[in-house]
Write a structure and sequence with these properties.
By secondary structure, this protein is mainly alpha-helical. It is about 60% helix and about 10% strand. It has a three-stranded mixed beta sheet with strand order 1-2-3. Helix 8 links the parallel strand 2 and strand 3.
């Protein structure tokens, strides 16, 4: 049975936690209220003319490309500039290929190679029931949920360029 003091303590802590969560969500919503292309122009990554030209190409020819991918594909921006920007925009840490050379192969193999390749995901760390995933599309909640269910671990997402993830998959799954 809970004491009155414990009940008071619990109910007093919840509004503070809810307020912090609400503030973090509001901050992210405000950041994402500005379309990503406009934010790229504001940050000086591309010009307004480049944005308009790429948006037109995206609409006409490259419908399956995300805007950032299309900027990379058309060589308007380098991934060393795009991924730190996306990391900030989505509030998800990023890791490049240079930071993925010394990983434990047993961690990488926590998910089947077919799943890693299909979802463009790699497990880059595991510690205390938590795995860290390098993902080219970290908003893919279905993949995160599937991996959480398969591994029974908490998941931390990292944004990573597709070529960095492919490097990990090729390097570590070939060992097995």
């Amino acid at each position: 049975m809970e004491t009155a003091a414990a009940t008071l303590h619990t109910s007093a802590a919840q509004p503070k936690e809810n307020t912090l969560l609400r503030q973090a969500t509001d901050d992210l919503s405000k950041r994402q209220a500005t379309p990503i292309g406009n934010m790229m122009v504001q940050k000086g990554l591309v010009t307004e003319d480049e944005l308009q030209a790429v948006l037109k190409k995206q609409k006409e020819v490259y419908q399956d490309f995300l805007l950032g991918e299309l900027f990379l594909h058309l060589r308007c921006i380098h991934e060393d500039d795009l991924y730190p920007f996306l990391s900030d925009y989505f509030n998800i840490p990023w890791r490049g290929i240079d930071e993925m050379n010394d990983m434990d192969p047993d961690h990488v193999e926590l998910i089947p190679e077919s799943m890693a390749r299909a979802q463009n995901i790699a497990v880059v760390a595991k510690e205390d029931g938590t795995i860290t995933l390098a993902m080219s599309y970290p908003q893919d909640v279905l993949s995160v949920d599937a991996i959480r269910a398969k591994t029974r671990c908490r998941v931390i997402r990292l944004l990573s360029p597709p070529r960095a993830i492919k490097f990990i998959i090729d390097k570590y799954y070939e060992r097995s």
